[in-house]
Amino acid sequence: MSWENNVRRVVPYVAGEQPKKANVIKLNTNECPYPPAPEVAAILHQFDYDSLRKYPDQNVSDLVAALAEYHGLSKQQVFVGVGSDDVLSMAFMTFFNSDKPILFPDITYSFYDVWAELHRIPYQCQPLDDNFCIVKKDYLIENGGIVLANPNAPTGNVTNMSVLEEIIQANQESVVIMDEAYVDFGGESCVPLIEKYENLLVVQTFSKSRSMAGMRIGYAMGSEKLIKYLNDVKFSFNSYTINTVTIAAGVASVKNKAYFQEIVGKVIATRERVKVELARLGFACTDSKTNFIFASHKTVPAKELFEALRAQEIYVRYWNKPRIHNYLRISIGTEKEMDSLLCFLENYLGECGELQ
Ligand code: PMP
Question: Going by CA atoms, what residue is nearest to atom 8 of ligand 1?
């Protein structure tokens, strides 16, 4: 017998590399290439650091109120956490306590199975079809909960709203979590369905479209009942999750709608341009509605391209996993960064004789 027999053993999630070197082109963790709203910088510069003596507002009231107003919800319908990873993990712990398996796609955000293992939740992965689309009937079976990313990651695909509504409607005995980390880049949000379905929890983040991955803000929206249950678990775990600086910076970001729309628009325009350029170089891309592109070259293996790019300090994401081992996930950077990527690929594929 050893103490090690009682350890909760987990295989942790592996996040994309965060290279320490300056001047790398970092297109591997779907960060936004543009700075946060200027008002966020103002908050940081003028921050009354004496206020740090006190604990933060455990109800995160100002940020909850700003988000509720932004989404046309009541404050009782919003929950804020330390990035959407924190919110999702807490939601798994709160809502998935059935003996029946929770359901999510075989190709999706690779944290879902890690949380399921951590919280000892049985789960079943439902295969996407050959076009990486979800198969509706796979979610119309008995289950202990459902998690869908829309748009999905790393494929970038969106699922039709009518299909999502059918799934939510058919599963009123379990909670359906909609992970909308990328929805601002061209997807359609399920937030309007919250009034109709008490079992729907929609999760969004400040990490992508609000350029604040380093601040760690994520939030959930749902019926007052769902949000109360989530708060009960949070206050049984750690009351002070969001710090004082983060609350003020988050509010400042939400208030500047024009800037938000401007940077999201820039990312979308770059994405569409790069999709066309990649097609010219022999890549097939999914119809991504996110801030990344999921691309496979017709002849050159993704692993080879990943390594060649990395050697040039251009970081993209690659998974050596079934069904997606020939794809690269490329985050949308600035126009200049994407030009460097395209220029490198053009030269590399040219030298391989792939562009005749
Ligand atoms: N959901 C999906 C689908 C993601 O890709 C990510 C980013 N890795 C997250 C949630 C978590 O993002 P964050 O914790 O930064 O809000």
Answer: 29
3-state SS class at 11? coil
Cis-peptide into 151, omega within 30 deg: yes
**Per-residue pLDDT reduced to its tens digit, 262-272:** 999 999 999 99
Residue 105: cis peptide before it, omega within 30 degrees of 0: no
E strand residue ranges, 30-152: 78-81, 102-105, 123-126, 145-149
List pLDDT tens digits, range 56-94: 999 999 999 999 999 999 999 999 999 999 999 999 999
Select from 109, 159, 182, 219 the residue to mutate for testing ligand 1; criterion: most ligand atoms less than 8 Å from CB. Answer: 109
Q: Which pLDDT tens digit goes with each residue over 28-65?
A: 999 999 999 999 999 999 999 999 999 999 999 999 99
The residues pairing with 317 across neighbouring beta strands, listed in sequence order, are: 329
> Ligand 1: residues whose CB is within 6 Å?
83-85, 109, 149, 153, 179, 181, 205, 207, 213, 218
| Alpha-carbon distances of 310 from 70, 112, 149, 150, rounded to whole Å | 40, 27, 28, 29
Structure confidence by residue, pLDDT tens digits, 300-317: 999 999 999 999 999 999
CA of 2 to the centre of ligand 1 (A): 37
Say whether pTM exceeds 0.90. Answer: yes
C-alpha closest to that of 225 among 195, 247, 203? 195
Q: Is 83 exposed, middle or buried (0-12, 13-18, 19+ CB in 10 A)?
A: buried
**Which residue type does 142 have?**
E
Q: Rounded mean pLDDT of 98-122?
A: 97
Q: How far is the CA of 292 from the centre of ligand 1 (A)?
A: 13
Query: In angstroms, what is the span from residue 37 Cα to ligand 1's centroid?
Result: 20
As a whole number, mean pLDDT of residues 198-226 equals 98
Q: Residues 230, 234, 235, 240: is their CA dihedral positive or negative?
A: negative
Q: Cα separations (Å) of 42 from 34, 61, 71, 249, 306? A: 16, 21, 24, 9, 38
For residue 71 the two structure tokens come to: 């989404």
